[in-house]
Amino acid sequence: MKAVVVGGGIAGVFTAYFLRQAGFEVVGVGGEVAYPLVSLVLTLSMPNREDVELAGRSLEIYRRFVQPREITSVDILPRWVDLSRLATPHRVADSVEGIRLEEGEMAVITRDYLIPVRKVVKMLREELGFRDSYALLKVEDGRAYVVADGRRLEGDVVVLAAGYRNSILAREAGISLPLAPYECYAVVYIASRKIWRYSVGDYVLGWYGRPLAPPLYAAGDGCGRYGQGPPPNYVQRITNLIRQRVGRVVPLYLKTGYCEVAPHGGPLYGRHPEVQNLYVIGGFNGYGAMVGPALAERLADLIAGQGRDDPYRLERYMGTTSFDPCAVSERHDWGAVLLRNA
Ligand SMILES: Cc1cc2nc3c(=O)[nH]c(=O)nc-3n(C[C@H](O)[C@H](O)[C@H](O)COP(=O)(O)OP(=O)(O)OC[C@H]3O[C@@H](n4cnc5c(N)ncnc54)[C@H](O)[C@@H]3O)c2cc1C
Prior knowledge:
Elements: E1 2-6, H1 10-21, E2 25-29, E3 40-43, H2 49-62, E4 69-78, E5 91-93, E6 105-115, H3 117-128, E7 135-140, E8 143-148, E9 151-153, E10 157-160, H4 166-172, E11 180-191, E12 198-202, E13 207-211, E14 216-220, H5 234-246, E15 249-261, E16 268-271, E17 278-282, H6 288-303, H7 334-341
Parallel strand pairs: 1-2, 1-10, 4-12, 10-17
Antiparallel strand pairs: 3-6, 4-6, 5-6, 7-8, 8-9, 11-14, 11-15, 12-13, 13-14, 16-17
Bound molecules: flavin-adenine dinucleotide (FAD).
């Protein structure tokens, strides 16, 4: 059996990896790896148990290739948030050295992991023989194939794993998907030594941050309209928020990246109901490094005939192919829980 995988990011390379383990001949086509940050954060502090389960499994998978670096995770939440759903060991604190907390707020302390994602993806791309080409998806008579470098690539299975370009490639092929692209940003700062130890999710003020190589720290928030560029005063706004918590930080530059979201705010995977050999994995928004490898494993199981039902199956969301990406609450985000309970 032959699989053609489009997209050489986390979702594409791990799907290819597991398909090859299942005995498939794999042809990977994936443009350059363009992660805005060298290491991405994997947290087990998420409101949904299914996501925590996927993140835990992804961590096990990463450990086959690299040694993730452990850091302290500080989630700042209002005191009234119900933590009974947090399926990971945690400690609740009223104060954290180097971070200002106000009355009525709590810090939920867990352990996060910095994953050198760029390195892992590059390693797997090389090992699996991904070609560095741009692919077009084509659908004819209910079957998918791929065109890359002027050549037609046929597979028993075609996997679409092209990140924020999934819905664009699908539309060009005349089919639709419940996915939408958006812009996401990170501001890189010089920050004090105290904060390098922490990955912060501030769900009261609305920003998140993580250490890069000392003395650099990255922080950002939510969602921008695709193609519009950062909103005016973005750097100033994030800088004001982060300063309220940690004091002086010096902004260096703004990095723009592209993300993709599905209507339920989580990732999805599965077979396209109208195209017999086309499988899709995407919609990872801000947590593809956390859950991507484990979801890729589930997709490979599904393709190999051992699928399971879960909240991430594509079929559940096919009815919603047009929606506003910035109106979606991201599943991994405690902020979404706050909104539901407010
Ligand atoms: C600033 C920023 C910070 C982030 N921080 C974190 C974090 O700390 N933790 C976390 O879990 N997530 C984080 N994310 C989100 C994470 O990067 C994404 O969820 C993840 O990269 C999605 O993986 P993917 O494989 O679906 O897509 P991508 O990683 O975007 O990979 C898609 C690949 O497909 C290729 N491609 C696209 N179109 C084609 C085509 N036509 N032909 C061939 N190849 C194609 C692209 O070149 C790319 O290599 C962050 C994102 C940004 C922007």
